[in-house]
Amino acid sequence: MSELRTPENDAPKPSVTASAKPSYPVTESVQQALTISLRGVDELLPQADWLQKLARSEATGVPLRIKLGLDPTAPDIHIGHTVVLNKMRQLQDLGHQVIFLIGDFTSMIGDPSGRNATRPPLTPEQIKHNAETYYAQASLVLDPARTEIRYNSEWSDPLGARGMIQLAAKYTVARMMERDDFTKRFAAQTPISVHEFLYPLMQGYDSVALKSDLELGGTDQKFNLLMGRHLQQEYGQEPQCILTMPLLEGLDGVEKMSKSKNNYIAITEPPNSMFAKVLSISDILMWKWFTLLSFKSLDEIAALKREVEAGRNPKDAKVMLAKEITTRFHSAAAAEAAEADFNNRARGGIPDEMPELSVGGAPMGIGGLLKVAGLVASNGEGLRMVEQGGVRIDGVAISDKGLKVEAGTYVLQVGKRKFARVTLS
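That's the Tyrosine--tRNA ligase sequence above. Prediction below.
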């Protein structure tokens, strides 16, 4: 029976023992690279190995291979996803090779990480649709000229049943059950499908195929990242280091940023909305966002924090962050315009740009009109917003929940940031 082989068709090589590894000098620039690597991270394991990889790269001039795998489970990326992308960009700027891996094969399995149930697998059509937009959005953070794009179907599809069985023999069920989510589901007698064990194995094999030196992921991916280290050793490769980034709290400052919790900022969001949402976060959360999302140095952030502690308005710092993030995903001009728009709204003004639509049905109840305009999720929510004093028509606060709006064109406002120009007939 033939042995499983890497995409490059290399036969497995003997493991290199620790004593046989040459030691490279740790220069000041290598130490600086380590400092940049550690910025904002949750864990970097093993740190000593990463330091030697950095030293080897400097001594030999060979860039390290930095891997990030993303399953295209949705077509859009929010700024919580860019925490890891920012770290990739920092490592790119140190001269290393970034590999943006789209998990088109693993998406068809479904990753159960951090869940108490299996994530439904995607169809090939869904995967193709989502993958088409992923890299274009990630390129707003990464340098496309120094990014290698790969799809794990390149080496996963050719494995076949024989290769999958050989790969599965590299890991035990007991070790697999050490994964926290599997342990909890087993204890709760929640079903675990056999195919779910294949997900971490396939993600780990990606590291073998790509010969990665470092793999990045969120804290919920630690088990899968360590699987890559294990499998690389099984195939005679130098094991990768792993770097986990903390999950970014969303606008509420409590839950991790998530579309399902509606506490996110999409990186394709209009600049005015993006700017205003950044300004809505708490003064405490702002500093974590600075560390994880800003490209300012840690010294610059520390100096800014000292100024705020000494009496400077924290809003000044938040405006800097909002403008930096808006500029990154749009432009400096768009960020300036977004700041002007925000200030105009703060003074009670109406923004120049807003959604516009025409609807029939006049006269229409205020709750229904707000729903049709897309400003609230339901008629009931619209009426609650009226009751709370959060609704304006042409700048005038509305307090009558029974209001019937006659035909005409109106600027509707809910809260401070939601506007729509509606022509009702």
